[in-house]
Specification:
Elements: E1 2-7, H1 11-22, E2 27-33, H2 36-46, E3 50-54, H3 62-67, E4 76-81, H4 85-88, E5 97-100, H5 105-120, H6 126-135, E6 141-146, E7 149-154, E8 158-164, E9 167-172, E10 176-179, H7 183-190, E11 195-199, E12 202-205, E13 209-214, E14 220-224, E15 229-232, H8 234-243
Parallel strand pairs: 1-2, 1-3, 3-4, 4-5
Antiparallel strand pairs: 6-7, 8-9, 8-12, 9-10, 11-12, 13-14, 14-15
Length: 246
């Protein structure tokens, strides 16, 4: 059976899509939600084969949901949108599928046929993740694990980031979170106008820097407002100074 999650903030749209999906003999709907955070939670917990994500949802759009998924574990994604055909030219339509509202049952059937073909070819949802990261605006809020659930935290609350192989420790004043991401990927998503790399494995929120102390051979200590001391490598010194207007 093809396990499907639906996310759309419009109840009639969710109900229509679920009605057509349950009529498919090889499909089961394991989740139907109205916002991006719930969609991400369902995908994380239920591991569906396919996700139908509305692009325009409050708080967290379908693109932002896709952008924050782990590519190797992401479901195949069908984006549902009211964008016009001109706006859709920005999408790599060979990499993903979409349903343009208002769509009819024939268009839905073609989309499901494409889904089945991709599942038979053992394709992952990596293409949708890549497109989400390329097309979604810089995230003002980041999805982080909180026990068995996910929550959204404001990017402004993140003080520094530390890479650990294929994981990143996200440090806020209150606590730290562990994400399965690369540091460069996370910086690209958060927007490098707020964060700056200070070491190959460390980045810092510019607003959290209190002072700098020179060390030897061009390195510095960075003192954050919270008292944390980080090392600034000379390799990244000039870029930091430029960002700080020095």
């Amino acid at each position: 059976m093809i396990r499907v999650v639906i996310a759309d903030d419009e109840a009639p749209a969710r109900e229509k899509l679920e009605r057509w999906l349950v009529e498919q003999p090889d499909v089961t709907v394991v989740g139907s939600v109205e916002d991006g955070l719930s969609a991400a939670q369902c995908i994380e917990q239920l591991r569906p084969d396919v996700a139908f994500l509305d692009i325009q949802m409050p708080a967290l759009s379908g693109l932002q949901v896709a952008a924050q998924l782990e590519p190797s574990r992401a479901p195949l994604t069908v984006f549902v949108t009211a964008f016009d055909e001109h706006a859709l030219k920005a999408f790599d339509l060979n990499a993903i599928d979409y349903l343009l509202k208002p769509y009819d049952q024939d268009r839905f059937a073609r989309s499901m046929q494409r889904v089945r073909e991709r599942l038979r070819a053992h394709e992952s949802g990596a293409a949708a993740v890549a497109m989400g990261r390329a097309r979604a605006a810089s995230c003002e809020r980041l999805l982080v694990p909180d026990g068995e659930r996910l929550q959204l935290i404001d990017a402004t609350l993140i003080e520094w980031l530390a890479a650990d192989d294929n994981y990143v420790h996200v440090h806020t004043a209150a606590r730290s979170y562990l994400l399965r991401r690369t540091l460069q990927d996370l910086l690209s998503q958060l927007g490098e106008q707020r964060f700056v790399r200070i070491h190959k494995s460390t980045a810092v929120n510019l607003a959290c820097i209190g002072s700098l102390t020179p060390l030897f051979k061009g390195d510095y200590e960075i003192h954050l407002h919270n008292g944390r001391v980080l090392r600034l490598s000379r390799r990244y010194r000039d870029a930091l100074f430029a960002r700080m207007g020095w």
